[in-house]
UniProtKB/TrEMBL annotation, chain A:
CDD domains: A4_beta-galactosidase_middle_domain
Protein's UniProt keywords contain RNA-binding: no
Native species: Paramesorhizobium deserti
Low complexity bias spans: 698-712
SUPFAM superfamilies to which the protein is assigned, alphabetical: Class I glutamine amidotransferase-like
Segments forming domain DUF4159: 738-956
Start and end residues of each Aerotolerance regulator N-terminal domain: 7-80
Transmembrane segments: 6-27, 60-78, 633-651, 671-692
PANTHER family: BLL2463 PROTEIN (PTHR37464)
UniProtKB keywords: Membrane, Transmembrane, Transmembrane helix
Name the record gives this protein: RNA-binding protein
KW Chloroplast (keyword) present: no
Superkingdom: Bacteria
Lineage, top ranks: Bacteria, Pseudomonadati, Pseudomonadota, Alphaproteobacteria, Hyphomicrobiales
Automatic annotation (TrEMBL), chain B:
Domain DUF58, chain residue ranges per copy: 60-259
InterPro entries membership: DUF58 (IPR002881)
Superkingdom of origin organism: Bacteria
Name of the protein in its database record: DUF58 domain-containing protein
A Pfam family that the UniProt record links to this protein: DUF58
Amino acid sequence: MNALPLAFGAPMVLAGLIALPIIWWLLRMTPPRPQEEVFPPLRILANVLKKEETPSKSPWWMTLLRLALAALVILALAEPVWNPRPVTLAGDQPVAIVLDNGWASAEDWDQKHDTAERLINDAEAAGAPIYVMGTAERTNAEIGPFDATRALERLEALNPRPIPVDRQQAFERLATAITATPGARIAYLNDGVETADDATAFAPLAQSGASSMLWYRPDTANLAGLASVENGADALVVHAIRPTDANQPRSVTVGAFDNKGRRIAETSLAFGPGSSTAEGRIEAPIELRNDFSTIRVDGSRQAAATRLLDDNAKRRRVALISGAEADAATAQPLLSPLYYISRALQPFADLLQPRTADLAISIPELLDQKPSVVVMADIGKLPEAAEQRLADWVSKGGTLIRFAGPRLAGAGDDDTLLPVTLRRGERSLGGTLSWTEPQPLAAFPANGPFAGLPTPQEVSVKRQVLADPSPDLFEKSWANLADGTPLVTGETRDRGRVVLFHIAPDATWSNLPISGTFVEMLRRIVVLSRNLGGTEENGTASVSLPPYLMLAADGSMIPPTPETKPLTVGGGATPEVSYDNPPGFYGSEDALYALNLLGPRSELTPLVQPSLSFPVTATAYAADESIRLRGPLFAAAAILLALDTLLVLWLGGHFRPRRGSRPQGGRKAAAMGAVVLLLLPGGWLLSASPLAGGQAFAQTSSPTPAQSAQSPETSDNTIHDDSRPGDQAMIDAVSVTHLAYIITGDKAVDDISRAGLQGLTQFLIEKTALEPGEPIGLDPARDDLSFYPLIYWPVDPNAAMPSEAAIAKVDAYMQQGGTVLFDTRDEMAAGAGLDGATTPAGQRLRAILDGMNVPPLEPVPSDHVLSKSFYIMPDFPGRFRGSPLWVEASLNSESREDRPVRTGDGVSPILITANDFAGAWAVDQRGAPLLPTVPNDPMQRAYAMRGGVNIMMYMLTGNYKSDQVHVPVLLERLGN
Amino acid sequence: MAALGQRVEPVATTDALARARQRAALVPDLLVEARRVVSTVITGWHGRRRRGMGENFWQFRPYVEGEALSRIDWRRSARDDHTYVRDREWEAAHTVWLWTDPSASMLYQSNLGEVSKEWRALVITLALAELLSRSGERIAYPGVIDPFAARNGAERLASALVHSAGVPALPDIANIRRFSDIILVSDFLQPVEEVLELLERLAKHGVRAHLIEITDPAEEVFPYSGRTEFRDPETDERITAGRAELFAQDYRKLYLARRETLAAYCKRLGWSFTVNHTDRPASEALVRVHMNMTADMGYQGGVA
């Protein structure tokens, strides 16, 4: 337009600049308004002020300031634009805008979107019909022609998708559509990545009557994808690719995330100059690696930069076979030979157990489940067929771990599945008839798989099987004893391995199986093993997996959309990424199948500009560099206005100190307030000006808030709070011992229970070392009972019968070591009634106990530990005296004259009384007793309290107290 | 920024009704304050210390031939051989005229003063009325109320002031008799010649005048600066000063010169001239005037 790259949106407003001289004249003429003052002695002042003041002129710089202000406002109103954007497609022939909205477009989608929007705006100005289509859309999507409004709507509806583009389909449709309107101009906003069918994709355009093509080339240098991930022995190997025409060395960081999106490991990859592939290793423990759910290139917001990992990369299957009796494992687990192995392997492997002890059946069965590792503990002789199957499996890559034992030691020497030849019989070290000592382990050989493990000092080996000396024995030894005999030997057979531990897998031959080193050794061997399982290789019939979690175009994980269809896996065909099956996790949570965008052999080849029958003009996604100056100009005007106001205030003398000090503070504060008020809008305008500046800024600062909210960087920092509601209540309940009672629902009963336990709590605090917290009322149906050692249950015949679930819960509580103190509180009624008659409370108690496993009961015998656990108690009175306290009968115990206390294990899970303990214990706020005892005897209350203490001590110490009674005798014996 | 001084609520407008209401609302407060002020100064306000007409005993003196026999105090004379006459202290009431400047310039209060000048003038006037009435003097207000003696002189004067309308700017002194006192409470911002002419006429009447000048600190200090437009509350005349602080010194000189002129005139005649600033308590002026009126010691001017 002219020399300056400046254009005006409303140039007519510039005529307002003519008004500047008038403004100048007005400004010159108008003096600042004087301060008006009432002044009674004006006559006297008039004598001094002889000459009349002419209106004073504004200082020239203030006039200049205001003129500049006016000029800025006029300029801003004229909507100036710096670097105005040239129109690309003029003319009213149809414009066809084709966007690649596949995965490679996700990163610079905003740029493509803005370019398309500008093209639509230009076409709208020229009145041309518009076609809009995406190449990764469904083939039946509407493509036009549209008017500009509809075209913009279409454009807004287009979003990048995490799938490859289908140019062939897209251009066929376009060619068909634009044939009707010849002379169409095509603008192809491609993503610069070649697909398989590109060679023929553009052919249909030749007959379409298109007149030209604008070929927008993106910058693909920053594109990077993860082609494959391999779970190696000690690291996860990540292979990344980038476009083959990228030459600059580049380094990217790759993070590993678990299924909750937490970042748990990372590594960095370097693309060398001219190289389009890079490899990185994430070194992490196998347990951590098993948690990897996605691997993601940092800062990359497209689908190919995220690699999804499914179970194939994770846990190994380990089959366990033992020669011991099958029932040994269940009856006496600690003696089972497989116990320590399974405990060691469980954290990082799936264990397969045989269903029968018959090796001929169980070994083929186990091998059908495709284990990576088979552990055979002390199996001396295998059936012929099973041995053959095992040998085949090992040669295909299986890892066989064998443990010695009496059976192996006694087996013949024709066993092929051993790394070394064994001598018959085992060697015993440190026995009664032996000179040798139990041997510790030597340092692990540096060339073996255990290299680097610390040498365990505490491990000693008492028995072992010995290998026949051979030239390669040293190489095969993975671990040795201190005297040089091998402890673990291993051999590679074809693709698999055979490993032998020269000791038994239980703790009889050595204490190695119960040491941490054993876990570490097994882990290393398992990690070394190959993963032989997997859905892909089993060649079974095809299954349809529902979508579980999808990969979004920006690389984040989203729930599946309604458009996503189930993925068909198996049946010989590798599933492919398509519109219906975008990359993501398919299947159920237990067995996820990861569908990834790139395969191990993928390449990112740059898209070549085709030569067509009509001219193809290459152009770049030039960022719109036009800057709207309107906002900054207004901001400048606002700043000048604020400056002017400050100057006026200054000229008015408002910032000068005055002699009259009283009103000065308020005045200064008011002036400062005015300054702040004036500066505020200036600052706001300044900060707002980039927004007003338009898309130019949006181009350069790419992450929009919506996207960055989903980006991995932010999700990394999310703190995962694992606490659950109710945690605090549990912590409170277990941090201090509490007495507890069952809430019957009758307020009078519950209040007495609470007051009674409160009184007992106080008594305990005063008399014993136990300091319980506040008593707690429990609803057996709802609350967790397991935190309380003793639960007081006042049986109330009028209360509702507790539900079966509640009774079952109380029963479980009693089985697990808790004690319930039932109190029918009806000794008076029972005593007054006829013999043999049962009180209502007693009937209710029977009904409750009917649903529980109640042990045989007996009244507390005089030599029961309850009567001696703190005080010596002949009986246990409450408010009433007379009812015995029933406890679990001590079976098989006889009272002996020389023993003051009956011995017995455990604590009675149930105590029953009718003496109304809580009534005797109950105290009010000040500690005074609430209810009288019957008869009203203070000693009876004291005994009731002591009985409570005894019960509590019995609960908390158990039979320890019964041993305590021997202490004086023991001391006496020690002393003599 | 708010103006330094302002014209206070129009306590004195031509609207009679509004004026009456404002006065009525104003007067009780003033009375309370006046009573308080009186009780602080009532000690020391004695009689005339001369024999004469009165009720209180003054002295016994020997009977002189020619005096009326009825004046002999027989009870005292019976105690010895002489004949005594009982003298009483002279308690003849004195007439004091009170006058307050009603002009608009009194309706002024600056941020430096605590009350408006009119307020202060009314307080002093009514306080003096209370004071004088209590001591049995006759008080009067030119153009408002004729001389009277009553214990509730302040109330009566106040109610008379409420009901009075159209008080002239300068007191009408035709009714003022010689040997009476007049207390003029004003800011004396009228042209000094007019004031002097009034004083001249008072002197000719044989009246003793006490001048109390009420002044706002802002008028004396002239704390203005910057471009300021000054307005006369009486005439609404306006003067704009480009930089007001430049004129402060000259103005102050003129202002004090006017005061000196008046003070010198009063001193020459043996009158008192008292200055009361509105940022100072009214009682200062009261005490000073009281002293000047009590002790017949000639000129006792001063600034309070």
